[in-house]
């Protein structure tokens, strides 16, 4: 038994044992197993005030709220705001057969936006934030922190003491919440299902990152045909491809700031579409206001039956970008998004659709290009230019979201290691992932060249959007039952209204599978396969180390062995384990036969929270009493950013000396601090394993294929751990070993 230290607190913890855990360790392990899986490995963020930045934004004064409300127009609403460019042509691909159908469709659009965008996202889902951060991962992190659903046993009781880890929960407990929690924790199938569902959500967001630029830019550029009717569809396609390539090329400069800089352009866009919509409503047919009566939806389905159901796949396009309201919450706060949604977004977009439908009541033949045909001639060029800029900004938000979600997945151990470049020291969450940027660009160009028109791309887009909606609702219901402990009647109402509407949307979009709908599903299956293979190998590697960790007696023998030479300096031995010493250590000692006088086992650990305050990041413990051998668990949240290794070394050294000052007696303290100071003067040496994972003899052919070929093939193409952790090559020593899993 030995001490773990954070600040002024220490917790007794069983750490080392035989390969089979002792009863005491099993008891502690059970105590510690509290879900921790979703996170982002943005290492070495040492600014103490960043941990509470999101919480501060959530409690901002009204002046700040108005400022954030203006800024979020440029970041969050691009996709939702530009949807009038392509929605109505997607609903009426074969033209308008009955003028009354326009009223039915308009009623569908109005109530879809009110129910899904406004009620679900703006007023319900935003409340399910994780310390001010949103998105599918935030919902998953809440579930992980409340139930033991993690598949890797690296949880510790000390994690709950992190200030940002604590949940503000209702005091009451319900039988339903307890039953659900027990079901989640006791069923391996459910744990895998939650992980698999999260992977699907990631893949669909990536699908949005491909399809949003395609459909937005293609729709906006298509408006040039109003001024140049002779321009062919191929010419529009190639112009769009050039814009898309340029869009992806500028990502390396950190164009998340585009949202902040060009918020005025989006404000201008919303003003234009609202004004033109109001103008068309007054000029052509004010009678379309009757569509606020939902009975027109019923009549529309009675008249068109199956065709009405199929057309819902086009209606869903008016909701694209709704998930961004939640996903981008971390940049703003709930009040700012609610304020700007109610004051700018929803009124402007509804006026745009009302105006288009009013125009189509008198010009049904123009439905294939309703947006540009309905623009008054003097407004055409200004609106065209603003539409191009708005489409680019809309694309930007989804591309940035793709980078962020990939970073989160990599920290979760569900995506191969990639380079994450932090593009801004000023704004949180601005990252650039070169490999993903290249893949998204190639996919965007391929989709644009392959489909050429927005109709087919719209079919693909609808499936990606509805999958994300349904996954968010599934996680939200779990949060309602288990965490919020919401009244069962309210949960049933949510499921029978919003839940059923989203399932109806999904069924309609899936009907268009052969007409382009297969694209996001094909893409999702590829991404999910990569994620699952990587996660499977990652877990097998961790479990091998856990099951073969070395015993205390073995460590004692190694330390006391006179043949082992003790060298100067401070050695940092990296390991995945937070409980025990990995078998790689004995392999290293047997070949090198040398140990540093001060040795620290470093475990980089991600917690299911957005940020870990810098002063709570390091968790120290002494591995063996009387020896300068320590364990240091370095904890990060999925929004923590990476700093340079030198700063990390300085903070680690200071925290180590603080720990020794509190853990040792007066006489030992001075001696040990002097030895540590000497070791620090000699410098750090990083010891890291380079392990090959192979399927053990007797494994099934599926396991051999997955581990020996697919997982190891992925490893050869990804960045190595030392690159991810920014470890200096001159100070690095790698140890090779084969794990038979």
Automatic annotation (TrEMBL):
InterPro entries: K+_transporter, K_trans_C, K_trans_N. The keyword DNA repair does not apply. It is found in: Cell membrane; Membrane. Keywords: Ion transport, Membrane, Potassium, Potassium transport, Transmembrane, Transmembrane helix, Transport. Pfam families: K_trans (PF02705), K_trans_C (PF22776). The chain crosses the membrane at residues 102-128, 194-223, 235-254, 260-282, 308-326, 332-354, 384-406, 460-481, 488-511, 517-536. Residues 569-740 form the K+ potassium transporter C-terminal domain. It is a multi-pass membrane protein. Potassium transporter. Belongs to the HAK/KUP transporter (TC 2.A.72.3) family. This is Potassium transporter. It comes from Hevea brasiliensis. The lineage of its organism: Eukaryota, Viridiplantae, Streptophyta, Embryophyta, Tracheophyta.
């Amino acid at each position: 038994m030995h001490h773990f230290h954070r600040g002024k607190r220490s917790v007794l913890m069983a750490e080392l044992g035989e390969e089979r855990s002792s009863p005491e360790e099993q008891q502690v392990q059970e105590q510690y197993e509290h879900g921790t899986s979703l996170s982002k490995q943005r290492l070495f963020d040492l600014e103490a005030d960043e941990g509470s930045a999101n919480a501060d934004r959530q409690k901002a004064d009204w002046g700040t709220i108005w400022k954030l409300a203006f800024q979020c127009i440029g970041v969050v609403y691009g996709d939702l705001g530009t949807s009038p460019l392509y929605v109505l042509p997607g609903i009426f691909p074969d033209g308008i057969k009955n003028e009354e159908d326009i009223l039915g469709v308009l009623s569908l659009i109005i109530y879809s936006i009110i129910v899904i965008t406004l009620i679900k996202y703006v007023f319900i889902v935003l409340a399910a934030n994780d310390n001010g951060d949103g998105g599918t991962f935030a919902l998953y992190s809440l579930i992980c922190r409340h139930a033991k659903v993690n598949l890797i046993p690296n949880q510790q009781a000390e994690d709950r003491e992190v200030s940002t880890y604590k949940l503000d929960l209702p005091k009451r407990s319900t039988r339903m919440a307890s039953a659900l929690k027990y079901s989640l924790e006791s069923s391996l199938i459910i744990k895998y299902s939650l992980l698999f569902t999260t992977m699907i959500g990631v893949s669909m967001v990536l699908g949005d990152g491909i399809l949003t630029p395609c459909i937005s830019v293609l729709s906006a550029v298509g408006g040039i045909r109003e001024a140049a009717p002779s321009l062919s569809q191929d010419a529009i396609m190639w112009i769009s491809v050039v814009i898309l390539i340029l869009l992806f090329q500028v990502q390396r400069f950190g164009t998340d700031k585009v949202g902040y800089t060009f918020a005025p352009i989006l404000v201008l866009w919303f003003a234009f579409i609202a004004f033109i919509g109001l103008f068309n409503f007054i000029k052509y047919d004010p009678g379309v206001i009757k569509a606020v009566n939902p009975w027109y939806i019923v009549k529309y389905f009675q008249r068109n039956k199956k065709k009405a159901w199929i057309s819902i796949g086009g209606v869903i396009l008016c909701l694209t970008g709704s998930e961004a309201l939640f996903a981008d919450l971390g940049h703003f706060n709930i009040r700012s998004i609610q304020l700007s949604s109610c004051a700018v977004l929803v009124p402007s977009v509804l006026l745009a659709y009302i105006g288009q439908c009013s125009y189509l009541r008198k010009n049904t033949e123009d439905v294939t290009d309703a947006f540009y045909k309905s623009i008054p001639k003097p407004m055409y060029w200004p609106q065209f230019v603003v539409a191009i800029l708005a489409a680019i900004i809309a694309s930007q938000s989804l591309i940035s979201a793709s980078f962020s979600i990939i970073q989160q997945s990599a920290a979760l151990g569900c995506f191969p290691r990639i380079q994450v470049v932090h593009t801004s020291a000023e704004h949180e969450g601005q990252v650039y992932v070169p490999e993903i940027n290249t893949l998204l660009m190639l996919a965007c160009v391929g989709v644009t060249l392959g489909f050429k028109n927005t109709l087919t791309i719209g079919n693909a887009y609808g499936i990606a959007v509805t999958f994300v909606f349904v996954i968010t609702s599934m996680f939200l219901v779990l949060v309602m039952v288990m965490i919020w402990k919401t009244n069962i009647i309210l949960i049933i109402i949510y499921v029978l209204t919003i839940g059923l509407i989203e399932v109806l949307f999904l069924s309609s979009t899936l009907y268009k599978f052969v007409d382009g709908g297969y694209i996001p599903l094909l893409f999702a299956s590829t991404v999910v396969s990569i994620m699952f293979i990587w996660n499977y190998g990652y877990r097998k590697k961790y479990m091998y180390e856990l099951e073969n960790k070395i015993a205390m007696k073995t460590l004692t023998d190694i330390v006391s062995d006179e043949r082992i030479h003790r060298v100067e300096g401070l050695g940092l031995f990296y390991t995945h384990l937070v409980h025990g010493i990995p078998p790689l250590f004995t392999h290293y000692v047997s070949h090198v036969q040398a140990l540093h006088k001060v040795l620290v086992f470093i475990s980089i650990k991600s917690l299911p929270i957005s940020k870990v305050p810098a002063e709570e990041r390091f968790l120290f413990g002494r591995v063996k009493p009387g020896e300068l051998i320590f364990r240091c668990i370095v904890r990060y949240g999925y929004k923590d950013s990476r700093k340079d290794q030198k700063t990390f070394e300085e903070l680690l050294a200071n925290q180590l000396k603080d720990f020794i000052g509190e853990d040792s007696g007066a006489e030992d303290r001075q001696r040990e601090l002097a030895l540590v100071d000497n070791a620090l003067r000699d410098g750090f040496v990083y010891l890291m394993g380079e392990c090959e994972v192979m399927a053990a003899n007797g494994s099934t052919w599926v396991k051999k294929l997955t581990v020996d070929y697919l997982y190891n093939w992925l490893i050869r193409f990804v960045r190595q751990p030392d690159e991810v952790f920014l470890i200096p090559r001159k100070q690095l020593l790698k140890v090779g070993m084969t794990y038979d899993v």
